Amino acid sequence: MNLEEKILGIMREVFDMEAVPTDVSQKNCDRWDSLRHLTLASELEDAFDIELEPEEIAEMTDFARVIDMIQSKL
Amino acid sequence: MTTFVFRNHTVEPLLGYDGMTYSGYGDISLVPADVDRYIWFYQVPVNPDSAQLAQEVESYCDLLDIVLSKVDESKPFFIFSLENIFPLRLTGDETAVADAVASFNAHAARQASAHHNVKWVDFSEFVRRYEASALVDWKYYLISQTLLNPKLAHDFQSWWQQVERENAHQRKKCLVLDLDNTLWGGVLGEDGVDGIKLGGEYPGKAFSYWQRALLQLERNGVILAVCSKNNEADVDEAWQHNPHMILKREHFSALRINWNDKATCISEIAEELNIGLDSMVFLDDNPAERELIRQSLPQVEVPDFPLKPYQLMPFFKELVDKYFRIYAVTSEDRAKTEQYRANAQRRAEQSRFIDMESYLYSLDMRLDIIPADEHNLPRIAQMTQKTNQFNLTTRRYTEADIRQRLEQGWRVFCMSVSDRFGDSGITAAIFLQPVGDVEVNIDTLLLSCRILGKGIEEAFIKTVFNLLKLDGYKTVAGDYLPTAKNQQTADFLDRMGMTLQSTDDSGAKHYSMALSDMFDINNCYNIRVL
User: Fold this and answer.
1) Strand B365-371 to strand B525-529: parallel, antiparallel, or no bridges (unpaired)?
2) Of A14, A51, A54, B301, which is the most exposed, with the fewest CB atoms less than 10 Å away?
3) Are B434 and B410 in contact (CB under 8 A)?
4) Which chain A residue is nearest to residue B138, measuring alpha carbons?
């Protein structure tokens, strides 16, 4: 599974959505609220065995930025 | 199902979003009525000033009481115990916060005992599994007020689902026990009264703890019974002469010590105690016996029995958590075990009497018919919730429902029953709804199965009919609404002389009767109307 698919899978679970489009962002997705954002961060930390700083968590506001952030950590 | 959560920290990652609504942090101003249940999940805040923190924690008791006074008593209300997951103590003798936490927990547990809808959830069961350092992720706490580490969310959810399952579980009434290698170690018939393993060193010590634990179950209203393949005389000797024996004959409400098959014995015990097979749990060390019961009496719960005596205490805890955990004990519950035993004794008496009439006289029964008041209202509501077998209409009422009906002019009576073997307490109720000036409708008539079989139901309703007639009522109406469990009352109103008016497709029957003559009531009952 590539990185993109793995992250989309985590998002589907955290947001409880059947499908998550690759242009998803905090702005265009109601489910991506501030609390689920934290759950997402915590799940990503677990899944990729990384640590995200609070500032980094705050920056991950859309799918592309999430990918960039995770890639920079691996 | 919709749930409203009172909280003072972010707990959404733990409890989830589906059907959940959350209060503001520490906010009790909104107590919504349009939800199915409530959860109170407060956590001890982070505050290095422990005196101030202790005061804040102390205030939670009042907050909880205010909320409880506003919620509908028919809706489940779960209170999580408070756990201080980041105890900060600057001096060694600093206990103010711990004391405040303990006092909140004691208060919440008392509320759970006082209200049948309030359930106490021991959150320490979950917290204890983790190292202190794993419980809080300070990064998440500081950016989102999530005190419990969100990484524990999955574990938390499976724990919480387990708690919910246990709560949905019907509480069992009776524990049926084998004897050899179940209540003591060894085989009585082979090892002898003093040879069985009980008391002293391990493994006897394990069985002593086990018996002491079972004794506490009995004292809290669980009925114990014995079903064992043994010679009854041997067992009696062990009960009388083994000095380490804690559970003795008097602690068991029914005994089947014989060589008959255990399925028959357990059915007989259910009949003797007048309880359903689905309220029984059977323990036996022999897997073949367990399998027999699982196959022939699938309603009976048959847990596996521990292979080693040192596993008995954790097994006991499991039994309590799964089948016998008590959330709210009424004094009636506590006395119930005593009553079941007195009933068994009564049946033994019954077999000695040749005719029913003289048996009934010999019981010296006292029936007190009491109008509903603040003292008996909780018990009346509880009976409408719990009584299934002798219940004409099976309408479930809360205390609030009943109060409302009393205000509308309904007449509600309950009946307290005692005889020379013991006091059964309040075990019957009737709800009468006036229809116009001279007619009354029996909305509810129920009797606890503990007092059935002695004609008490007839004496009760006929006394009520006489009271109604004396009060000037001309007609009484009533319904029988069939359920899976109340067939035994299907023809009760016929037998009481009422006339069937109509039957609908669901089998519901409507009756009425003119109140013309006074009913004669057998003199074997000493009836008082209070």
Assistant:
1) parallel
2) A51
3) yes
4) A54
> Over the stretch B275-317, which tens digit does the pLDDT of each residue have?
889 899 999 998 888 988 988 898 999 999 999 999 999 999 9
Both structure tokens of B372: 């509903």
Pairing of strands B252-257, B223-228: parallel
Burial class (CB in 10 A: 0-12, 13-18, 19+), B50: buried
**Residue A38 distance to chain B (closest CA, Å):** 8
Tell me the three state secondary structure of residue B192.
Answer: coil
Q: Which residues of B9-34 are buried (b: 16+ CB within 10 A; e: fewer)?
A: bbbbbbbbbeebebbeeeebeebeee
The pLDDT > 70 percentage for chain B reads 93
User: What is the distance between the alpha carbons of residues B108 and B247, in angstroms, rounded to a whole number?
Assistant: 33
Q: Which of B334, B326, B327, B322 is nearest to B112 (CA)?
A: B327
Among B13, B137, B151, select the one facing A35 at the smallest CB separation: B13
Per-residue model confidence (pLDDT) at position B397: 93
Task: Check if B3-168 and B174-324 are the same fold.
Answer: yes
Strand B411-419 to B365-371 pairing:
antiparallel
Q: Is B248 exposed, middle or buried (0-12, 13-18, 19+ CB in 10 A)?
A: middle
CB pair distance less than 8 Å for A57 and B143:
yes
Radius of gyration of chain B (CA): 27
Q: What are the structure tokens assigned to A19, written together?
A: 């499908």
Cα A33 from chain centre: 12
Based on its alpha-carbon atoms, the radius of gyration of chain A, rounded to whole angstroms, reads 11
User: Does B339 contact chain A (CB < 8 Å)?
Assistant: no
User: In chain A, which residues touch B (CB < 8 A)?
Assistant: 16, 34-36, 38-39, 42, 45-46, 53-54, 57-58
Q: How many domains does chain A have?
A: 1
CA end-to-end span of chain A: 15
Under the banding of pLDDT at 50, 70 and 90, the label for residue A19 is: very high
Q: Tell me the pairing of strands B3-7 and B20-25.
A: parallel
Backbone phi, then psi, for B352, in 5-degree steps? -85, -20
**Between A and B, how many CB-CB pairs are < 8 A?**
32
pLDDT per position as a tens digit, B1-40: 899 999 999 999 999 888 999 988 888 888 899 999 999 9
**Per-residue model confidence (pLDDT) at position B168:** 66
- CATH superfamily, domain B174-324, is HAD superfamily/HAD-like (3.40.50.1000)
pLDDT band at residue B165 under the 50/70/90 scheme? confident
* DSSP 3-state of B233: helix
The full set of domain ranges for chain B reads 3-168, 174-324, 358-529
Q: Which two tokens stand for residue B262?
A: 């255990």
What does the pLDDT average to over B452-470?
Answer: 90
Q: Is 60 exceeded by the pLDDT of residue B326?
A: no
What pLDDT was estimated at residue B337? 64
Question: Within a 13 Å sphere around the CA of B509, how many CA atoms are in the beta-carbon half?
Answer: 16
3-state helix, strand, coil in chain A (%, to 5): 60, 5, 35
